User: What shape does this take?
Amino acid sequence: MKFAIISDTHFGDDECVLVTSQNGNIVKGLKYDEFEDAAGQDNDYLILAGDILDFSIASYEKAYQYAQFFFQKIREDGIANEIIYLAGNHDTDIWHIIQHQRAVTNRLQKGHLPESFEHSVAGIIDDRSGSPQKGFILDKVTVRRETDKPKYAGMFLDNITTPETFFNFAYPNLYIVTDNETVLVTHGQYLEPYWAILGEIGIKIAYDDLKVGEVDIEEMVEMNFPLNQLACTGIGQAGVLTRVVRMLETDTKNKDLSRIKKYLDRFGKEIDHMTDYGWLKEIISDYIIKKSKEEVLESIKNIEKTRYSEEFVYKEELKERFRRFYASSLLEIGDINSRTGLNIPAPWRIIFGHTHQPIPWNDPNPPKLDTVSSASPKRLTLHNTGGWLKEGDRFCGAEIFTYDSAKGFSSTTVRG
Assistant: This one.
């Protein structure tokens, strides 16, 4: 078996270095050839670990146009005809679309009523010698039996190329099991506060009604669904408002709060116009609005960016969130093992993206993380796929991870 792993291509973002626009035409970006060389040819799979199409920045039309060029190109260049797609925060809507197609549209077209979404479907690549289920598995998904067709796929994105490219969708985890180890591949958005906050707060304040103890991956995804939806297509498909949000994001990154302060001042005046209190309540209201604006501005000023941050993986709050995510993943593995008999061992390496800071497979001093069990002598080793965006004139750097049954894992770094 042979495959390559990348993430954070951000198709639709003008700063993407794999696919770009030139004189009105979509063409290869300045780093595509290096990606092609590192990924190699005749892969069984190209694994995409999230933030592939960027719906939070670009329109559907633009994101799919750029993605179509890329997927057509990798077919022509013989990189891979089959994809394993794990959505991230910028393209989480891909997973929602797939679930809507599976659970709603397809069933209605057949005269059936919709059924529940699957909020989490694990992907598993079992490359253990002698394994009776060796190969790629989508947990809880029925295998297709058509001749000359892949085991899964058959969803809407297959037709983005001619001939078809076969897309397999898992979310949010892929477990790669070899004779030597298990590697967890995920995008990593649930390691950042915004994407996990509803689950964390919900458990603390509504524990008696939620009736959950240890949260598994599916429950984590379910509880954070509203904010994930809002920050992906809720912002990216908001038309004229999308441009304003992008300006605010840029201002925040540059620590320029003048526009945000202007909007907050106007918001305070609008609240003031809408209230009809007596003089005492008016004073109290003005004080609360003033203090709220101060708190908001102070909070925004202190935001530390995740993207391009080398310190992110070493922060204590990140480590704690990583442990919670890992514990949830272990619950998922336990459930899979009990239902299927696959006996997937606990992963001791994690490949994730999201931060755009590459951490190679053979890094001499990779970040390590204590596991959820103090009794275990092992520690998690963290690796990162980097990303395929420029920040100004600087290319952030990407890591292409590859696997070959005969050679194991390795990675290649692409720099500016």
In short: The chain has two domains: 2-193+306-414, 238-305. The chain is about 40% helix and 20% strand. The mean pLDDT is 89.
